[in-house]
Amino acid sequence: MLRPYPALRLALLATFLLGLGTFAGTTALTIYTFAILTRLTYEDIENTSLGAYDALCSLGSSPAAAFSRGILPGIAPSYLSNVLYLLETNVRNSSILGYVGAGGIGLLLDEKMSWLEYAKVGTILLALFVTVCVIEQISSFLGSLIRGERRVSRTASRILALAALQLFVVCTLTLAPPDFSHTSAALLRNMLSGLTHPDWSFFFQADSGGLGYLLLETVAISLVGTCVGALIALPLAFLASPRFLPRPLAVLFRLLTLLIRSVPFMIYGLIFIRVSGPGAFTGVLTLSVCSIGLLAKRFTEAINALDFRPFQALRALGISPPCRPSAARCFLSACPPSLRRFSTAST
Q1: What are the pLDDT digits (tens) for 63-85?
Q2: What is the enclosing helix (H) or strand (E) of 103?
Q3: Residues near 302 by Cβ (< 8 Å), separated by ≥ 6?
Q4: What burial letters (b/e) apply to 84-119, b meaning 16+ CB within 10 Å?
Q5: pTM value > 0.85
């Protein structure tokens, strides 16, 4: 029930209940992250082998101890990787929550867009790009620690954990307290009554303005936008991997994907509306570009984590470099289930 609602709509609802400010935006992103991360995690749990858990239980371990030793180590890397990626995603989401008064840089971005001050809009987007680059580097470092590719001492691990905890506490203490001055019992009753008593006549309207028609159009936009973005993101991911191109060129393509990801989806929508006008085609263009940025990073991470021995064996048998679709087949077959489900969960 929580996943269908975008972060911006959750923020709009939070401002009605909690007042304007950063507390409402934080609450909305908390619910948004909880909804997506819960699905990804329980699907990882369902695909985890219970052999170690059953073996520990048969040896006399308690279910809690067997779970902590046999299940958690298997899902922890994927869980933490998804947390890091959603952190980067939420940076972009939080940059537009100001449109509904939920704090952040979105209020300033809305103001400059309304006044057509595109030079200042460009400055804001450049600042977002630099922020995403910094978070990308931090995420890459932490991700290498999670995957065991890099080792640090136990003391350094404790220092990192303590620094993360302190950062969380400081950010939490700087939030503005909620404002309940505009919230009343009557408002809550009316909202709850409306949400639990839907008007089905509105759904079955036959014209193009009816809910049923617009819902089908929304699904079509999502499907086409995700497919187009995935088709473009896959070759871009290979180009951004240093395993296929010299590192300087791979870094350039990686910066390109970072640039695509750093721009909030609403800004893409506003730009494409001015180019192609309002309508479903604008929605497809917006979702396609957003899907490119989202999936290209995930594909690149999967490519860099692949076992390239099958690819090298094919090359040793005389397969020429243009036949690199074989590498793509290796990539798709070795792609983890959580990655194949990620685009669906995020759409």
Answers
A1: 888 888 888 888 888 888 888 88
A2: none
A3: 237, 331, 334, 335, 336, 339
A4: bbbebbbbbbbbbbbbbbbbbbbbebbebbeeeeee
A5: no
